[in-house]
What we know:
Layout: H1 10-16, H2 23-32, H3 41-46, H4 52-55, H5 64-72, H6 75-83, E1 86-87, E2 92-93, H7 95-110, H8 113-119
Antiparallel strand pairs: 1-2
Helix pairs in contact: 1-7, 2-6, 5-6
Amino acid sequence: xxDRLYSTGAFSFALAYPGSNLLSIAQLFSVTxxxxxxxxxxxxxxxxxxxxxKRSVLGGLLPESLLYVLERSSPVAFAVAMVSDxxxxxxxxxxKMRAENLIRQVLQHxxxxxxxxxxxxxxxxxxxxxxxxxxxxxx
Length: 139
């Protein structure tokens, strides 16, 4: 089941979380993001010839530089990077990018399901891939 966690919407709901306490989310992402069967699953995860953004279920949603923080550093470093303003050669990421691009676009994709879920806790998420997150400049 771990390789199909993506189909529950867990990654989408976690990325839509607007708070700053992201350590638990980062820990979950750390042990699952490259092991999802969204297109090749473990084969994709172990194929070092593919870029990390293609191996990770988070590719297209987060900059590849943040994915490398998750892979090469630690969940703590990733959680800090997600809520920080960084403009370095390694990472370009800001609160504004998270709020106006990532969270807004993921919530737009989820539509009214979060409200339905709060009213009917047994509702099942009908998985659909989130389109790649873009900045206003890219659109």
